[in-house]
């Protein structure tokens, strides 16, 4: 990791890292200096380019990003610092404790983009999109809130399709909610670019809280 990014983990992250409550539930507005119009969550933000681009495009939205890997957190901090973004807060860990700590119906949009596919059958329980996780997401999402998923991995595509069709908690935005075409307001990630260069076809899942 470059010296600059290492320094940002020490200097910038402490002011942006979420402090989850030891008891009770968290009100997202308490994490932001300026009240936000609504709150969007990205789970597994990777290098942070998608989250930073969304935050720059929507300065009135409060963004929360979850990412357990140190290099990814450092990369997002670099985007935040260079672009002067003040509407992002970070949970540098697994998203599940955050979901458990949030107030009900506080999120207006959730992104889960190009997640680790855990392709081996014995690791399937580690895939993030599962019925218990979808239930946890539904609890903290507003009625009609958007859930955006994407993956280029065939194993995860099949898995995600099965999971989304099995849940009554989310309904497709259009048709069956699954397409090879990006939504109009999509921000391309570096993982997506790698997939396209390698000849893989991503699937985009657009659902709403029912």
Sequence-ordered SSE layout with sheet pairings:
Elements lengths: L2 H9 L1 H4 L21 E6 L5 H9 L3 E6 L3 H14 L4 E4 L3 H7 L5 E7 L17 H10 E11 L2 H13 L3 E3 L5 E2 L10 H8 L5 E7 L1
Parallel strand pairs: 1-2, 1-4, 2-3, 4-5
Antiparallel strand pairs: 5-8, 6-8, 7-8
Helix pairs in contact: 1-4, 3-4
How many runs of DSSP E, i.e. beta strands?
A: 8
Number of alpha- plus pi-helical segments? 8
Shape: globular
First-to-last CA distance: 42 Å
Task: Give a description of the structure.
The structure is a single chain. This protein is α/β, with parallel strands linked by helices and about 210 residues long. It contains eight helices and eight strands, in the order ααβαβαβαβαβαββαβ. Strands 1, 2, 3, 4, 5, 6, 7 and 8 form an eight-stranded mixed beta sheet that branches. β1, α3 and β2 form a beta-alpha-beta unit. The longest helix has 14 residues. The radius of gyration is 17 Å and the shape is globular. The N and C termini lie far apart (about 40 Å). The model has no long low-confidence stretch (mean pLDDT about 95).
Summarize the structure.
This protein has 210 residues and is of the alpha/beta class. It has helices at 3-11, 13-16, 49-57, 70-83, 95-101, 131-140, 154-166, 190-197, and strands at residues 38-43, 61-66, 88-91, 107-113, 141-151, 170-172, 178-179, 203-209.
